[in-house]
Design brief:
This protein is an alpha/beta fold. Helices cover 31% and strands 20% of the residues. The protein is built from four helices and five strands; from the N terminus they run βαβαβαβαβ. Helix 2 links the parallel strand 2 and strand 3. The longest helix is centred in the last third of the chain and has 10 residues. The protein starts with a strand and ends with a strand.
């Protein structure tokens, strides 16, 4: 299943709820304000680092750049994708849920 997060991880419980239900080969796509979860040395980045290696992480490059975050500061396990990549991963997973 692909989980698409678009809201800031600091505003409500969606981010934490999503992390609790992740399983096996799930994927997580961070868009819009959710990219702030990847800030270096943040509690949310630490939470992401503790998840199983089988969980795949993606982030939209345009959203990272729009918020002034440096691409070279992102965790190694996060794949930076463009809009075509977003379409491809949405098609790759059998189910998609947006948080």
């Amino acid at each position: 299943m692909l989980h698409i997060l678009r809201h800031s991880p600091h505003l409500d419980g969606r981010f934490a709820s999503c992390l609790r239900v992740l399983a096996g080969e799930d994927g997580v796509l961070l868009t819009e304000e959710a990219v702030y979860a990847l800030l270096r040395d943040s509690a949310t980045a630490a939470q992401l680092s503790l998840l199983p290696a089988a969980v795949q992480f993606y982030v939209l490059e345009a959203d990272v750049l729009a918020r002034g975050l440096p691409l070279d500061d992102l965790p190694v396990r996060v794949e930076v994708i463009d809009y075509q990549g977003m379409v491809a991963i949405c098609a790759k997973f059998p189910k998609v849920v947006s948080w």
